[in-house]
Specification:
heterodimer; A: 235 residues; Rossmann fold; 28% strand; B: 405 residues; 13 helices; 57% helix; binds adenosine-5'-triphosphate; binds magnesium ion; transmembrane transporter activity (chain A); translocase (chain A); ABC_transporter-like_CS (chain A); cell inner membrane (chain A); ATP hydrolysis activity (chain A)
Chain lengths: 235, 405
């Protein structure tokens, strides 16, 4: 693979608590992800997947080791610089959708653009495009309470891609959805990855969800236990 | 960006109507109380001023008798030697700085026209009286000097007397009976309304002093001497001059107390005005405390709001909101809220003040300065009391905030 490096973990540790109670959520993780990759992260509960995702999405910083995002030592940036990185390059999709309540789909999708200082007209156009890309035309003015779980997750994906990010970080995006909805969302993510070249890192507990990704990384007790490419598997 | 934030905060205020309303309530009550108090207070002050200026501005009033106390009204020594015409003559001859000097004696007397009768305040005076009291004629003419001197049976009547006897008709040239004498109406006095003490100032008949003394009072006493200062002379300067001249004509040596009292209407006006102003200020301050309570209410609700919306803050931070975006959002929200409360409070306060003014028949005197101050102050309260909760929201860790249920 010749695409440039997007993410590198160099002996990354993340520890919580002090003394006896100290827990190492990540214990010296080494990892490299290139632009345009679609990576699934799997592993048992408590193995450090969400912790790693928070660092990848520049929400959190390592306790030790180096985390580089697009060649920047993101682990050492202050919170406002990381906020800027997130705003410019990262889109988030959460298991619980995390839409603003009593706020229409269009307004939710516009939100990241507001923090970028995009003018109202352009914001509306971009939001409509993003909602169209996730197949939600006609639902712009519905609030989350008026949408099904699958539709809410589509709004969340639209909100994540409206800024044309480089990386989409998705922590169990289908965790709350039934099988049919899960496959719709996964097809949508696959299409975004293929058509826009959007890099995706996604946590999942389900093997058939992970199958959509080109690469699967397994975590175990804060370590990377295995890292397999789909092509290798097939071979 | 700010405009965008204002729109966002208006949206979130609208989304939480009940909570927003409860937040507003403290500010609404505080601002309404302050505005009502200050507006009613300044109305009262104006009323007091107007009442006093009805008595005449820059006016000294001399009465017989010893002064009861500093500036205090009434309490005059009844047995005192009355004022006499030679006192007036001496003042007219020697007093400088006076615009008008006029003697006056008055009595409640039954006035009759045809079959109608009315008890009126009948005053015997001279042609300078109208000038001294700042009183004008609506129609007709004042007494001439010769009428004053001769004590001719002519008179000027007030609006109440005219209405009683003539309705809307023209009273000029009609003859009314005052006590046992009759006099011809030669003019109608401009209406003055009631004094603050409920006395009808238009139920009056003015007649030449000599006519009054001879045919109404039956003596030659003078009750009051009105002295109006001219524009260049303050009454405080005029007063000692009046005292000197009267001591001289009444032969009172400097070591004795005078047997007359000089009241300075300007001083009384100032004293009463400053008393009502002080009271207005005190009431305003008490109301201001409730405004402070309103501010603490805002802080309380904003803290609840930040806690309640922790997840929302987490989402906003995750998708790229800067600390300052969150800070501004909550600050603007608090400011917009309290500003809204301020505006509602002003409207309620003004309505209250308007109703009260009507009930108390005092002027409705809203002050633009006070209103602007209230607007500014409520915005300030929002900012000050919103700052701490806003900062708390802005400093939240996005991961913790997102995990918050
Ligand atoms: N804020 C925290 N304080 C203390 N310990 C934490 C904190 N966050 C995570 N941990 C610990 O770190 C370890 C890894 O947690 P993490 O959330 O990354 O697991 P996970 O792989 O995402 O699990 P799951 O599949 O259940 O979501 C766990 O032992 C967890 O208890
Ligand atoms: Mg997790």
């Amino acid at each position: 693979m010749s695409a440039p490096l997007l993410i590198t973990f160099d002996k990354v540790w993340k520890s919580y608590g002090e003394g006896e109670a100290r827990v190492h959520a990540l214990a010296g993780v080494d990892l490299a992800i290139r632009r345009g990759e679609f990576v699934a992260i799997m592993g048992p509960s408590g193995s450090g997947k969400s912790t790693a995702m928070n660092i990848i999405g520049c929400l959190d910083t390592p306790t030790a080791g180096t985390y580089s995002f697009m060649g920047v030592d993101a682990g050492r940036l202050d919170r406002n610089r990381r906020a800027l990185l997130r705003n410019l390059y990262v889109g988030f999709v959460f298991q619980g959708y995390n839409l603003l309540p009593r706020t229409t789909a269009a307004e939710n999708v516009e939100l990241p653009l507001i923090y970028r200082g995009v003018a109202a007209r352009e914001r509306r156009d971009l939001a409509m495009q993003a909602l169209a890309a996730v197949g939600l035309v006609g639902r712009e003015h519905h609030t989350p309470a008026e949408l099904s779980g699958g539709q809410q997750q589509r709004v969340a994906i639209a909100r994540a891609i409206v800024t044309r990010p480089t990386l989409l970080v998705a922590d169990e995006p289908t965790g709350n959805l039934d099988t049919a909805r899960t496959h719709e969302i996964m097809e949508l993510l696959t299409r975004l990855n293929a058509e826009l070249g959007l890099s995706i890192v996604m946590v999942t507990h389900e093997a058939d969800v992970a199958d959509y990704a080109g690469r699967t990384i397994r975590f175990l007790d804060g370590h990377v236990a295995s890292d397999t490419l789909k092509t290798e598997e097939a071979a | 960006m700010i405009w965008e934030t204002v729109r966002l905060s208006l949206r979130s205020i609208r989304r939480n109507v009940l909570r927003s309303f409860l937040t507003l309530l403290g500010i609404v009550i505080g601002v309404a109380a302050v505005i009502a108090m200050l507006t009613i207070g300044s109305g009262t002050t104006e009323k007091v001023k107007a009442d006093i200026s009805k008595l005449g501005s820059n006016l000294l009033v001399v009465r017989a008798g010893r002064p009861a106390g500093p500036g205090g009204p009434g309490g005059l020594d009844q047995a005192a030697r009355p004022l006499a015409e030679k006192d007036v003559t001496a003042l007219v001859a020697h007093l400088s700085g006076a615009r008008a000097i006029s003697p006056a004696s008055q009595k409640q007397v039954r006035v009759i026209f045809g079959t109608e009768s009315l008890t009126s305040g009948v005053t015997g005076t001279d042609s300078a009286y109208l000038d001294a009291r700042d009183w004008k004629l609506v129609s007709g003419r004042p007494f001439s000097d010769s009428e004053t001197r001769a004590g001719t049976g002519v008179c000027l009547i007030g609006e109440t007397v005219r209405q009683q006897f003539f309705g809307a008709g023209d009273p000029e040239g009609e003859i009314i009976r005052v006590n046992r004498t009759s006099c011809k109406i030669i003019g109608l006095l401009e209406p003055k309304g009631y004094t603050g003490f409920g006395q009808d100032q238009d139920n009056v008949v003015l007649m030449p002093l000599h006519a009054y003394q001879r045919r109404v009072a039956g003596n030659r006493d003078i009750d009051n001497i009105y002295i109006a200062a001219d524009d260049r002379t303050p009454t405080s300067e005029l007063q000692p001059r009046v005292e000197d001249i009267l001591r001289d004509t009444r032969r009172i040596t400097p070591d004795r107390d005078p047997d007359f009292a000089i009241r300075d209407m300007t001083q009384i006006a100032d004293a009463m005005t400053s008393a009502t102003t002080t009271m207005t200020g005190m009431l305003g301050a008490v109301a201001g405390v409730s405004l402070l309570v309103g501010g603490i209410g805002i802080m309380n609700i904003m803290l609840v709001s930040v806690t309640e919306r922790t997840r929302e803050i987490g989402i906003r931070l995750a998708i790229g909101a800067h600390e300052k975006h969150i800070l501004i959002q909550f600050l603007v929200e608090a400011t917009v809220l309290s500003l809204l409360g301020g505006i509602i409070g002003i409207l309620i306060g003004l309505s209250l003040a308007g109703l009260t003014s009507m009930a108390l028949t005092i002027p409705f005197a809203p002050s633009p300065a006070v209103i602007l101050l209230a607007v500014g102050f409520s915005a300030l309260i929002g900012m000050v009391f919103g700052f701490f909760p806003a900062l708390r929201g802005a400093r939240l860790d996005p991961i913790d905030a997102l995990r918050h249920e």
